[in-house]
Design goal:
Blueprint: E1 2-7, E2 17-22, H1 30-38, H2 42-50, E3 59-63, E4 72-77, H3 86-102, E5 107-111, H4 119-132, E6 151-156, H5 162-187, H6 195-205, E7 211-216, H7 218-223, H8 227-233, E8 241-247, E9 255-261, E10 263-267, H9 276-279, H10 287-297, H11 299-302, E11 306-317, E12 328-331, E13 337-340, H12 347-360, E14 365-370, H13 374-380, E15 384-389, H14 392-405, E16 408-411, E17 429-430, H15 438-447, E18 455-459, E19 465-466, E20 476-477, H16 482-489
Parallel strand pairs: 1-6, 2-4, 2-5, 5-6, 9-11, 9-14, 10-11, 13-17, 14-18, 15-16
Antiparallel strand pairs: 3-4, 7-8, 8-11, 12-13, 15-18, 19-20
The chain binds ligand BES, manganese (II) ion and zinc ion (ZN).
Zinc ion binds near residues 264, 285, 346 and 347.
């Protein structure tokens, strides 16, 4: 989809669909009123008859039958006037683009009033439109159920400040393309999306100035003694991969950030096998890794003045004759030993390797994303991610970046009370707690490997995969975390 900004006279513009955003108080706003007059009161009458109240995510379509040059008018609900946040604009952009597709129009205008012509609004509408029309359709053989909007024109009334708006559209396109890449990687079935595939995709998508991808195969992983990744990979026919992506800005880097993503391409649980229902969506278990690859892929074009290292340990977790067994002990690169009590707690085992390597880089901070625990879904559901951090400032700034992105993070405690849960009778620690608070004990396990680097762990088990359609994302991989990280790296959240 193309997105343009153009000066538009709404009552005179020739377009198939004219979208007009309205809040609960704006139904009798300036533009809506003018349009209603020209439409001989039909717009107002339809609003009344349909009970349209401009709720967020709602819309109302009216064919103009030649009363104005625009073929249809679409009122797009923003919700309550005092609650209109960036995310309401994202939703509005998605609603307009999807409605346009539903009635098979090729071009639509999304009209903005003068006070709405800001970079925040323009960026959010563009981003929402691009995210809303995302589909994973490569395996569908039946035809299209709806059209795809070719061009969305953001209509403005004057041409001042246009450089900032153009920049906002450009950034929205970049962030949406990263989110859609992450969604594609998650939605791809696990028999295709192996560790090797993931590393090839990283090579394909992470090109450009300042960006380098390094892929370690099994031999190199053995040489580097990534014991956790090797242990989890033991039960698989597929080779593991350790993906390292590095971005260096042109000028001097203001700081250095390490991003680590869990890359379990399928989680059967291993010998601690999951029941069938719990396995159905376990291709999602590389969503953290997908987010990291996707973020890295747009850095050359976003060009933040931050050095970024992205690390993704990738393997599936399967139970063949060579599989690691409950009771096995792993000896890590930093000397720590771990008793593997449950082979289904595999994410933390492969993340431990990556966190050790990341900490050795002495970054200013490191952030890991992982679909780590079902317990986090029990606590926060599918709409929020759990956030754990050993650094208050980092936690705060990530939360703020998440809020701007429409990705909600909720901080949970690294409660030392539960430290004893992961004590082992034969090794330094074990990989599962013995009781409740599973999201916390998993985070405490990870903390064992971060040294004293400021670190944050995002448990995205819930929001990484949508079990139902959302306005800005269909069922399946969501790309959660990508936009939070992009906000964080471009420095909004400091
Ligand atoms: N990948 C799962 C966590 C998960 C569950 C993600 C549901 C998304 C949806 C993880 O590897 C896992 O199996 N965790 C176990 C940990 C347990 C064995 C301590 C869990 O949550 O049951
Ligand atoms: Mn598991
Ligand atoms: Zn897992």
């Amino acid at each position: 989809m193309e997105i343009k900004i153009r000066e538009i006279a709404p009552t005179r513009v020739q377009t198939a669909l004219l979208a007009v955003p309205v809040n609960d108080k704006g139904l009798d706003g300036n533009l809506a009123k003018r349009l209603d007059r020209q439409l001989k009161g039909r717009l107002g009458a339809l609003v009344k008859k349909s009970g349209f109240t401009a709720k967020r995510g709602s819309s109302l379509l009216l064919a103009t039958h030649g009363a104005i040059p625009a073929g249809h008018v679409l009122l797009v609900g923003l919700g309550k006037q005092d609650e209109v946040a960036p995310h309401a604009w994202r939703v509005a952009g998605a609603v307009a683009a999807k409605e346009a597709g539903r009635i098979w129009v090729d071009e639509a205008v999304f009209m903005l009033s003068p006070d709405q012509q800001t970079d925040v609004v323009v960026g959010a509408v563009a981003e929402g439109a691009l995210l809303g029309v995302y589909r994973f359709s490569k395996y569908r053989s039946n035809g299209h159920k709806r059209g795809t909007l070719g061009t969305l024109v953001l209509g403005r009334t004057a041409s001042r400040g246009s450089a900032a708006l153009t920049r906002a559209v450009r950034q929205a396109k970049l962030s949406a393309s990263a989110v859609c890449l992450a969604r594609d990687l998650v939605n791809e079935p696990a028999s295709i999306a192996t560790a090797t595939y993931l590393s090839e995709q990283a090579v394909v998508h992470c090109r450009g100035e300042g960006l380098k991808v390094e892929v370690w195969g099994k031999r190199k992983i053995q040489q580097m003694k990534l014991a956790g990744l090797l242990a989890v990979n033991q039960g698989s026919r597929e080779d593991p991969r350790f993906i390292r992506i590095r971005y260096k800005p042109k000028g001097k880097a203001r700081r250095k950030v390490a991003l680590i993503g869990k890359g379990i391409t399928f989680d059967s649980g291993g010998l601690s096998l999951k029941p069938p229902r719990s396995m159905e969506t376990m291709k999602l278990d590389m969503a953290g890794g997908a987010a990291v690859i996707a973020v890295m892929s747009v850095l050359p074009k976003l060009a933040p003045d931050v050095e970024v290292v992205g690390l993704v340990p990738a393997t599936d977790n399967l139970p063949d004759g060579g599989a690691q067994k409950p009771g096995d002990v792993i000896r890590y690169l930093n000397g720590k030993t771990v008793e593997v009590v449950n082979t289904d707690a595999e994410g933390r085992l492969v993340l431990a390797d990556a966190l050790i390597l990341a900490a050795r880089e002495k970054p200013d901070c490191m952030i890991n994303l992982a679909t780590l625990t079902g317990a986090c879904i029990v606590a926060l559901g599918n709409e929020l991610a759990g956030l754990f951090s050993n650094d208050g400032g980092l936690a705060q700034s990530l939360t703020a970046c998440g809020q701007d992105a429409g990705e909600n993070l909720w901080q949970l405690p690294l409660a030392t009370e539960y430290r004893e849960e992961i004590k082992s009778p034969i090794a330094d620690i074990k990989n599962v707690g013995s009781g409740s608070a599973g999201a916390i004990t998993a985070a405490l396990f990870l903390q064992e490997f971060v040294s004293d680097v400021p670190w944050a762990h995002l448990d995205i088990a819930g929001p990484a995969f949508a079990n139902k359609d959302h306005i800005t994302c269909p069922k399946g991989g969501t790309g959660f975390g990508v936009r939070t990280l992009l906000n964080f790296l471009s420095g909004t959240g400091e």
